Amino acid sequence: MGERRKGNSSKGEPKKVSNGQSDSLGQWGRAWEVDWFSLAGVIFLLAFAPLIVYYFVMSCDQYQCSLTAPLLDIYTGRAELSDIWDKTPLLTWKAAYIYAAWVSFQVFLYVCVPDVCHKFLPGYAGGVQDGARTPAGIINKYQVNGLQAWIITHILWFANAYHFHWFSPTIIIDNWIPLLWCTNILGYSVSIFALIKAYLFPTVANDCKFTGNFFYDYMMGIEFNPRIGKWFDFKLFFNGRPGIVAWTLINLSYAAKQQELYGQVTNSMILVNVLQGIYVVDFFWNESWYLKTIDICHDHFGWYLGWGDCVWLPYLYTLQGLYLVYNPVQLSMPVAVGVLLLGLIGYYIFRMTNHQKDLFRGTNGNCKIWGQKPKYIECSYTSVDGKRHHSKLMISGFWGVTRHFNYTGDLMGSLSYCLACGFDHLLPYFYIIYMTILLVHRCIRDEHRCSSKYGKDWKTYTDAVPYRLLPGIF
Fold first, then answer.
1. Keyword Lipid metabolism: yes or no (predicted)?
2. Top-confidence range, 48-62, 229-243, 381-395
3. By the 8 A CB rule, do 450 and 458 touch?
4. What is the 3-state secondary structure (H, E, C) of 65-100?
5. Which residues of 232-266 are buried (b: 16+ CB within 10 A; e: fewer)?
6. pLDDT at 36
7. Minimal CA–CA distance to 434: which of 43, 56, 39?
8. Which end of the chain is more exposed for a tag (fewer CB within 10 A), N or C?
9. Closest C-alpha among 202, 200, 192 to residue 138
10. At 392, is the secondary structure helix, strand, or coil?
């Protein structure tokens, strides 16, 4: 609900704002205190999230993507855990070289190649941008060049595939499980480094949160914006690169593998590539807007982001394409068109809902939403210095339908990816299940902050817009 800012300063140093403009520290970031329920959730994820990723990947590699077959084999005695592990490809030097080259290349593009796309792409806000105000009152500068990195990477990918032939387009899927060990090494390494850095040499000491619980601090992070040098911001880099840049390359590698194995690329694989490609390009086109989202504005950098972005994202967000390598699906034309329309409508709702919010904020409500002047709730809150501040919460357009209708559009798009895979297996539907849990949890987190911030004004707002995601249901 914070104010959106844009900037194009040529300097990379963070700037400090007065405490009078800062929100209450209690409204920022993760929890200060850890209850037993939160601690149990943290320990569960630390213990089982890596196993979940391994189980999904292994089930495809050894059981044609059946999630129940491995359990049945173990239960009936046809296989033991050691048998499954013995069949699992191990780390190879080839995979290590590939992954090291990949991460190094993305670091180079992030740190050493300033953005030029904003100079010739109308409407694109790249280059040096201001982030949101941190709890310590710092406004960090960011080099927004994700779209440029994505374009350069994919130009080189297609140049190799159709001209240079340095490596096979199936290189990713061919080394998929050895690469899993590489991503885990990086994920754990950067998470441990972030923990040590927060204690010994934090970028901004006042932006650190210590709960005193090792497991919680390790997972959820201590430092708000760990950085090395002027430009390398851990949170922005690992949130967007190398995982999301790789997302579309991984799908392309899956498509190439389908062509190699079956002599064709199915329309379901094309749909997954197109719909997820739209999501990825949209992410990078709006990277400066992303600087003001909950991920950057409230999450600290720990295992949750470090390991999650290195391992969880590239391996579980791409399950639909992986599934279609092992189980090719050719959809009928009506079904294919229906899936495409669901994905495009979901994307339209997601993007237009965010656009309406940005337009409303950018004009202070002096605009038209759906042809009419928008309605809003006047809210006020008190900052730590005792000063009273005012803001507006829009209740028109999509924001009058539900309080998080952008998430509704996001879930529609997520569902379309899964539907492209048919209904023979549960595995490709993990994504919609996971995204539903994630976004519902995010709704609750966001609204808890807003309730603490706005008090009775938030109750007035929720009375005007009573539903979170689905009108009349939730």
1. yes
2. 48-62
3. yes
4. CCCCHHHHHHHHCCCCHHHHHHCCCCCCHHHHHHHH
5. ebbbbbbbbbbbbbbbbbbbbbbbbbbeeeeeebb
6. 84
7. 56
8. C
9. 202
10. strand
Instruction: Please give the average per-residue pLDDT across 11-31, as a whole number.
Output: 45
Residue 394 tokens, joined: 């829009």
Report the C-alpha gap between 318 and 248 in whole angstroms: 9
Other C-beta atoms lying within 10 Å of the C-beta of residue 159:
12
Q: Compute the distance between CA of residue 222 and CA of residue 209 in angstroms, rounded to an integer.
A: 5
Nearest 5°: the CA angle 466, 440, 150 is: 120
Q: Angle CA(376)–CA(368)–CA(443) in degrees, nearest 5?
A: 45
Tell me the chain's radius of gyration from C-alpha atoms.
23
Of 30-34, 72-76, 169-173, 310-314, the poorest mean pLDDT is in: 30-34
Which three-class secondary structure state does DSSP give residue 27?
helix
| Residue 293, token pair as written in the block | 């989202």
Alpha-carbon gap, residue 380 to 392, rounded angstroms? 8
Query: What whole-number distance in Å separates Cα of residue 465 and Cα of residue 468?
Result: 8
Structure tokens at 294: 């909950």
In this prediction, residue 10 carries a pLDDT of: 36
DSSP letter assigned to residue 420: T
User: Which tokens belong to 403?
Assistant: 């309080």
Amino acid (1-letter code) at residue 154? H
Q: Any long-range contacts for 391-396 (C-beta under 8 Å, 24+ apart)? A: 391/1, 391/3, 392/360, 392/364, 392/365, 393/1, 393/454, 393/457, 393/461, 394/356, 394/357, 394/360, 394/365, 394/369, 395/461, 395/464, 395/465, 396/356, 396/369, 396/370, 396/372
Task: Measure CA 168 to chain center.
Answer: 28
Contacts of 75 (CB under 8 A, 6+ apart): none
What does the mean pLDDT of the chain come to? Answer: 89
| Per-residue pLDDT reduced to its tens digit, 211-248 | 889 999 999 999 999 999 888 999 999 988 899 999 99
Neighbours of 448 (CB within 10 A): 11
CA distance 154 to 157: 5
**Burial (0-12, 13-18, 19+ Cβ within 10 Å), 294:** exposed
Q: Residues 213, 234: contact at Cβ < 8 Å?
A: no
**Residue-by-residue DSSP string for 280-309:** HHHHHHTHHHHTTSHHHHT---SHHHHHII
Q: Give residue 321's Cα distance to chain centre.
A: 18
DSSP H/E element including 128? strand 127-133
CB under 8 A, 24+ apart: contacts of 351-354: 351/282, 351/409, 352/398, 353/397, 353/398, 353/399, 353/405, 353/406, 353/409, 354/286, 354/289, 354/406
As a whole number of angstroms, the distance between CA 52 and CA 325 comes to 20
